[in-house]
Specification:
This protein is α+β, with helices and mostly antiparallel strands. The protein has helices at 21-47, 49-52, 64-71, 90-93, 99-118, 185-193, 264-285, 291-333, 346-349, 357-365, 368-380, 428-445, 469-479; strands at 6-14, 53-56, 59-62, 136-137, 143-147, 156-162, 175-182, 195-204, 209-218, 229-236, 242-247, 259-261, 335-342, 389-393, 409-410, 416-419, 425-427, 451-453, 460-462. It has 2 domains: 6-218, no CATH class; 229-260 and 311-484, Nucleotidyltransferase, domain 5, CATH 3.30.420.40. The chain binds zinc ion.
């Protein structure tokens, strides 16, 4: 989330089956030319790194102005100092491309260079035949999106500037390449959610389809509530997807607001797929298979795993949507802060030979980070600021009693939790969720703390963001004094 808003992408297919051959050829020409220009820009950048790239705090940054000095001549009319010749004259090698389009390609190339540097990946001198899309910006009126309800071919059309008919020496008014879009009501709804900022035209060679990606900017109204403050603690789990408990200003967990989030039908389907994969792996482990048979099995395994991955993603989306709906409904009644437990170093402790292989397998497959990120993103679309959805370390929350703060506890099996000091007996995940909610207040009240770290994004939020908590702290000091005794609650 940026300061100005949230960016999302809406993907719409172009109805390529109804456009004329000429239009399709033009589309291929434009995208192919853009790819070549972007590659050329990348080549120039890599060849002249010493001249163009500056290093700041260990990060390499390309100076766009210096790159222009190497690639673009300036017109006679412009007020800029004249540059009649440059070393790599792109206008000369691509005469049918306008200045604006060249600059859009330059921005794309610079972005690609930065991402390659950030990932430490080797420079791709000759990338495969895949087309690189150019980002066309809306503010310079590069494209138009229109709706024509009476049109029988398509309801929505996008007009892209077709600059291929540029004449070299005289100005020419460019025609627009009008492309019909396969817009469903879902697309229409999401296109209305934000302001269109940019567009990319892509070709998917596997599907043999053309797609348009619209980049939207959402500027939602800020979430603000003058109601009493409350904290919603969420404990993510493997068997139960999540447990949530609401800590209200009365000083206790609201008994009517305890929720268990799980989906059994999906789990059954996933288990079925896992069994299939295991079966294939067993066959592959055998010796004496022919090469063709082996390749065929590998192909099957690959597609199965891919399907499994997408299914996992879909499941995460469906149940975070449910959670978001619930959080928004609670947010209307309270000035709500959401805390999600984050198991730090859980994968490090479950190494080979340490614990049971079965639990290790399930923990390494557990996607707690993606769920938290999705939750943050979906709530940010509703104007929730980042500090309202925090993820903090959940170590010791499962073994501490949420009523008395004692560590003299046992878990005879996975779901049950028993405290031997006060005799409290409840669901272990619920106990964790309660502790997580209380931990945020505990952090805010710690005298030595000045900020709280978000474990997912790694950002620090000053305690002044949690201005409402002095109100909550009053009852904590009176009613639940054990939280403030040293050693209890926080142990990391
Ligand atoms: Zn207890």
């Amino acid at each position: 989330m940026t300061r100005s808003g949230v960016r999302t992408t809406v993907k719409v297919r172009i109805k390529a089956e109804v456009i004329t051959t000429r239009k399709r050829r033009r589309l291929e020409q434009i995208t192919g030319r853009d790819t070549r220009i972007i590659k050329q820009y990348l080549k120039v950048t890599y060849h002249n790194e010493e001249q163009i790239v500056t290093k700041k705090k260990g990060k390499k940054k390309v100076s766009k102005a210096k790159l222009d000095h190497l690639t673009l001549i300036t017109y006679k009319k412009s007020k800029l100092p004249k540059r009649p010749t440059v070393r790599h004259d792109l206008k000369k090698s691509f005469p049918r491309c306008s200045q604006n389009e060249l600059q859009e390609c330059r921005d794309n190339a610079v972005a690609i260079y930065h991402s390659q540097q950030a990932n430490n990946s080797a420079p791709v001198k000759d990338p495969p035949l895949k087309k690189i899309p150019r980002t066309q910006l809306a503010h310079s009126k590069r494209f138009i999106l229109t709706c024509s309800p009476s049109n029988s071919i398509a309801r929505w059309w996008v007009g892209i500037r077709d600059s291929l008919d540029t004449k070299k020496n005289r100005t020419h008014k460019h025609e627009k390449l009008w492309l019909p879009l396969a817009c469903s009501p879902y697309h229409e709804h999401s296109l209305h959610q934000g302001k269109i900022q940019a567009l990319e035209v892509l070709y998917y060679p596997k599907k043999k389809e053309w797609w348009v990606h619209f980049i939207l900017l959402h500027v939602p109204d800020k979430y603000f509530s003058s109601r009493p403050p409350a904290v919603l603690g969420i404990d993510l789990g493997i068997n139960k997807r999540a447990v949530s408990a609401l800590l209200t200003p009365k000083g206790a967990i609201n008994r009517h607001e305890i929720r268990f989030w799980s989906d059994k039908t999906r789990k059954k389907l996933q288990k079925k797929k896992e069994r299939k994969i295991a079966k294939l792996q067993k066959i592959l482990a055998k010796t004496g298979l022919s090469v063709n048979k082996r390749n065929d099995l590998f192909h099957q395994l690959k597609s199965l795993r891919k399907r499994q991955r997408t299914e996992h993603k879909l499941t995460d989306h469906t149940y975070t949507n449910k959670l978001v709906k619930y959080i928004l409904s609670v947010g209307k009644r309270y000035d709500l802060y959401v805390v999600v437990g984050f198991p730090i170093h859980i994968r490090k402790s479950h190494y080979r030979g340490n614990l049971h292989p079965h639990s290790r397998k399930s923990i390494h497959k557990w996607n707690y980070r993606r769920v938290t990120e999705l939750l943050k993103f979906k709530l940010s679309l509703h104007g929730w600021e980042e500090y309202r959805i925090l993820s903090i370390g959940e170590s010791w929350t499962s073994s501490c009693c949420s009523r008395c703060g004692s560590y003299h506890t046992t878990r005879p099996n996975q779901p049950t939790f028993i405290c031997h000091t006060c005799g409290y007996n409840l669901n272990a995940d619920l106990n964790g969720a309660k502790n997580i909610a209380k931990r945020l207040i505990k952090y805010v009240l710690q005298p030595k703390y000045t900020s709280i770290k978000d474990q997912v994004s790694g950002k620090f939020f000053p305690l002044s963001s949690f201005r409402v908590f002095p109100v909550l702290s009053q009852w904590l000091q009176t009613k639940q004094s054990h939280l403030l005794t040293p050693g209890a609650g926080v142990r990391t």
